[in-house]
Amino acid sequence: MAIPGKKVAVLGLDCAAPRLLFEDFREDLPTFRQLMASGSRGELESVLPPITAPAWNCLFSGRDPGQLGCYGFRNRTDYSYRPLSIATSSAIRAPMIWDILGEHGLESIVVGVPQTYPPKPLRGHLIAGLLTPEGSPRATSPASLWQEIRQVAPDYRFDVSDFRHRAPDALIREVYAMTEARFKAARYLVSQKPWNLFAMVEIGLDRMQHVFWKYMDPDHPFHIPDSPYRNTIRDYYRYLDRQTGELLEHFPEETDIMVVSDHGAQAMQGGFCLNQWLLREGYLVLHSAPPEVTTLTPEMIDWGRTRAWGTGGYYGRIFLNVEGREPHGTIPADSYETVRRSLQTKLAEVTEGADCLENQVYTPEEIYKETTGIPPDLLVFPQGMQWRSLGSVGYGSIFSRENDEGPDGANHARNGVIIQSTVNPVLEETGKLSLLDVFPLLLEKFGLPAQAAGNTGA
User: Sign of the CA dihedral 392, 398, 402, 408?
Assistant: First the structure.
């Protein structure tokens, strides 16, 4: 039996970094500082991969990426060589915390959570998150809510598109406008709609840190001293603190508040050219060598002679070309594990000349409770994600200082943040929780047992 009248608010700050929130900027953040003083705070160890999709859905479902069958923003939907598919809400079948609460008669307000487009019905109100097409008539549940939101926040937007290529001043304006509209909509909903759970994710911090980290961090390889943008990230943390303070004024006094991030951030040292390395090692074969850096496409690959190919991004994914599985598989099925383990060993330490990159390389079976959908055969985290994985080919080296998807000053870090307005003994003792601990913690706050997740069946 759920606790009637209980109110819990979860404020998600995508990419919030422990060092910045808890140390470097702490004195500038009175709202967050007060929450920490009255409750508990610590690091929140994310899932692998620690990226927006699937991490937020993992947090709100208590399932790891393998259980969700979602290994990033894009995933294989079959064993063909087609490009990966964007993971929308339709790809997520596990119940979220608001689905379970709805079964027990409790109402939820959900704002901006990634992978909620297209919106699914829920007991409550939902505004979809990033990847929602601007101007989409299917941005909310119920559908009629969108007209209300447009009245309250006419400039409401889901994300800043192509943020890596924006002029810095324009990006700053757009992120602030997006964040202001999101918090304005949130204040309206919590004051005008019934709710027991409020869950919101703001994506702006992720965008700001990717673009402006190099101006802030003196240890960044491309740091620019005395840049006019050196305080841009600090200023935005201050702004989030003020917006959070205004939002908290609309919560009843007894509201249980939690601030979380799906992952942290760190300086990006460069890029590991994953497919270029596979070419060099003879795993990947192209019909012809590109004359310049080029995005790898299926048409470029000689599948009859290729044993493996990969994708770029915050981390790298390796797919093996297996007989009887892929259309033109070259690895005999009975040699699959031998080839995979050999490739895993080689990828763990990559060298070129005097340069060495120590990578964390996992099979999905090593890090997930189970695997659904079509997982990558190997997951590669270059130098603890201090380096990004680059999927393009045509490089003269397997290392690059530049991101092939546009300028980027930061990559993700495994640990995000958690702040609770009430004291959490485990957090007080260890200083850390797992992202997957949040879901059972929310169930407990509503007086529901952990096995309540099984009622919806997924």
Answer: positive
